[in-house]
Specification:
The chain is α+β, with helices and mostly antiparallel strands and 172 residues long. Helix 1 runs antiparallel to helix 3. The two termini are 35 Å apart. The radius of gyration is 19 Å and the shape is elongated. The protein is built from 5 helices and 4 strands, in the order αααβαββαβ. It has a 4-stranded antiparallel sheet, with helices on one face.
Length: 172
């Protein structure tokens, strides 16, 4: 039988998880500690034995959302977050944006979409010096800070430059 924790204890657990996740995602948690946490979470069924640092970060993020639910911040239990990253680039023309879209699809990107960069519902905070007219977004399975994520950032950045655009960032 489970019993509720007092709200101050839940907030402390939340704060500890926030700090741990932040340190994990910037590479400040030792590989030994990371492996130990993955082993513990594997025994609880939360991650696979071969989970990456990015997957561990995603699981910690999901735990944070469940703690927020337990604190009464959400009416319903949140679903796990998607295990993918959205990469966004800007392009100077619709033709360049379409060429980027085609390449992102060829690389296996999903939900590859183009939108007018001036649309106020854009995916990114735009740099005022970026005069590109179009944004292209694509989802891939790599999660930060895994090496595959860093490699994808380089790949998408080079694609953007090749077509006169620039890499805008990524997020989950």
């Amino acid at each position: 039988m489970t019993k509720p924790l007092p709200a101050p204890d839940m907030r402390v657990l939340f704060d500890i998880l926030v700090v741990f996740q932040g340190e994990l995602l910037i590479g400040q948690v030792s590989p030994d500690v990371t492996a130990h946490v993955i082993r513990r979470l594997t025994s609880d069924g939360l991650v696979a034995e071969d989970a990456s640092v990015g997957e561990l970060g995603a699981v910690i993020g999901d735990l944070l959302q469940r703690v927020r639910y337990a604190l009464g911040e959400y009416a319903t239990l949140p679903s796990p977050s998607p295990r993918e990253t959205t990469y966004v680039l800007s392009a100077p023309s619709l033709e360049a944006a379409r060429a980027c879209q085609e390449q992102l699809i060829a690389w296996g990107g999903s939900a590859v979409t183009i939108r007018d960069a001036q649309d106020s519902r854009g995916w990114t905070m735009r740099d005022a010096s970026d005069t590109n007219e179009w944004e292209v977004a694509a989802n891939f399975p790599e999660l930060a800070p895994d090496p595959a994520h860093a490699a994808r950032v380089i790949q998408v950045s080079e694609l953007a430059r090749e077509h006169g655009g620039r890499y805008q960032g990524s997020g989950r």
